[in-house]
Amino acid sequence: MHAGLDPAAPGEPLLAGPVLAAPYHLPGPADAAPYAYARDANPTWTRLEAAIGALEGAETVAFASGMAAMSAVLLERLAPGDVLVACADGYPGVRYLVDEHLTARGVDVRLVPTATDAFAGAAEGATLVWLETPANPGLEVADIAAVAAAAHAAGALVAVDNTLATPLGQRPLDLGADFSMLSATKTLGGHSDLLLGAVSVRDAGLAEGLRRWRTRAGAIPGPFEAWLLHRSLATLELRLERQSDNALAVARFLQGRLDDVRHPGLDGHPGASAAARQMRRFGPLVGFSLPSAEQAQAFLGALELVAEATSFGGVHSTAERRGRWGTDAVPEGFIRFSAGCEDAPDLLDDVERALEASI
Ligand SMILES: Cc1ncc(COP(=O)(O)O)c(C=O)c1O
Questions:
Q1: What's the number of CA atoms in the CB half-sphere (13 Å) around residue 349?
Q2: Which residues have CB under 8 Å from 324's CB, separation 6+?
Q3: Cα–Cα distance list, 151 to 85, 116, 128, 331 (Å)
Q4: Class of residue 164 by CB neighbours under 10 A (exposed 0-12, middle 13-18, buried 19+)
Q5: Predicted pLDDT of residue 244
Q6: What CA–CA distance (Å, rounded) separates 276 from 282?
Q7: Residue 187 backbone dihedrals phi, psi, to 5 degrees
């Protein structure tokens, strides 16, 4: 609620507005002021980074999008001959980046499924381990502490894409990870109206490397988006609580009615015991399969409160047939459902009605 806000001053707003600047006044020496040129630093980012940093218990560097944040970690850290262990089943953007830029420049990439043993078993000889838990879209969960222990014993650094859980759901750095990365486009922003990313670290050298990368690559957040995200963080806990409760209610409603209902809080879900140990909130996502692509489309078309859209984490519920992209190994009728902040009974009625209309 308060992190990153300027001290109270009569006549000043509670949250200062976005600072729109390219150069700042800089008389004399280059270090005469904390802000010189806005590709290096901006007071609106400084406030936002203090707020996300308070959630992560870390130093945070904000980026233009989740992909910009991910690229900063992967491209800044890895050189020819290094070994990356990454998830085979998480957000497909990681695999594109790895195929098109890391493998091509001589990084040895090992893709493994999101499961504690698979990651721990692949860590020997690795330079960096990139974990996404829960993974998008299958919601598999790995034990961050166990993977971090195995990776560190092998001399590797560990990065966790914490987009699905958010730092209020789990804090990867507390569990031993070296980098916690977020697409703030999702639940952190929460209103489906901005793209941003962030990486948090507790090592000053790692933070310095990320900042330098951001300046060199120009992967910088726009001040307006940074301000909007900071404003949105004030309601993150309220939104996450409602969305997590709604997602679990939808999952429980569908369990028994459909096969293959996936949610980290359901018994029997892959990694459910790790999820119960390391997560305080499970986040807004539920996965489930209808028998065919046609039935899945009919279900989506019959929903009235739930928009058919990609992305997730917004206050309005959304859902999509994930197979339409051809990027994930999921059944043709698999739906990724993102629970919003609607009243639970309204949402469950809508889901029940759409399900009846589709099968
Ligand atoms: C888990 C995960 N990580 C990273 C990203 C990329 O984030 P952005 O779209 O903000 O670049 C996404 C986007 O869907 C995602 O789901």
A1: 7
A2: none
A3: 10, 11, 8, 32
A4: buried
A5: 98
A6: 9
A7: -65, -35
Report d(CA 198, CA 163) in Å as an integer.
10
- Among the listed residues 47, 186, 262, 336, the single catalytic one is 186
**Amino acid found at 307:** A
For ligand 1, atom 10, name the residue with the nearest CA. 66
Active-site option among 82, 89, 143, 161: 161
Q: Which domains does the chain have, with CATH numbers?
A: 43-233 (3.40.640.10), 237-358 (3.90.1150.10)
Shortest-distance atom of ligand 1 to CA 132? 1
Active site residue 280: no
Closest residue CA from atom 6 of ligand 1: 66
- Reading the block at residue 65, the tokens are 């999008």
Query: Could you tell me if 171 and 179 are in contact, meaning their C-beta atoms sit under 8 angstroms apart?
Result: no
Q: How many CB atoms lie within 10 A of CB 270?
A: 19
Burial class (CB in 10 A: 0-12, 13-18, 19+), 75: middle
State both tokens at 44: 């609106």
Q: Which two tokens stand for residue 172?
A: 């990867």
Task: Please name every residue paired with 161 in a beta bridge, in sequence order, or none if there are none.
Answer: 132, 181
For 334, the 3-state DSSP assignment is: strand
Closest-CA residue, ligand 1 atom 9, reads: 66
Q: Are 150 and 119 in contact (CB under 8 A)?
A: yes
pLDDT mean by block of 10 residues, the chain; 359 residues: 96 97 97 97 98 98 98 98 97 96 96 97 98 97 98 98 98 98 98 98 98 98 98 98 98 95 94 94 97 97 98 98 95 98 98 96
Of 67, 50, 46, give the one whose Cα is nearest residue 59: 50
- The tokens describing 31, both together, are 């270090």
Helix (H) or strand (E) holding 83: strand 83-87
Mark whether 186 is an active-site residue: yes
Q: Which two tokens stand for residue 103?
A: 């493998």
Determine if the pTM surpasses 0.85.
Answer: yes
What is the predicted pLDDT for the residue at 89? 94
The residues pairing with 255 across neighbouring beta strands, listed in sequence order, are 258
Question: Which one of 185, 191, 192, 193 would you pick to mutate in the ligand 1 pocket, going by the greatest count of ligand atoms within 8 A of its CB?
Answer: 185
Catalytic annotation present for 35 = no
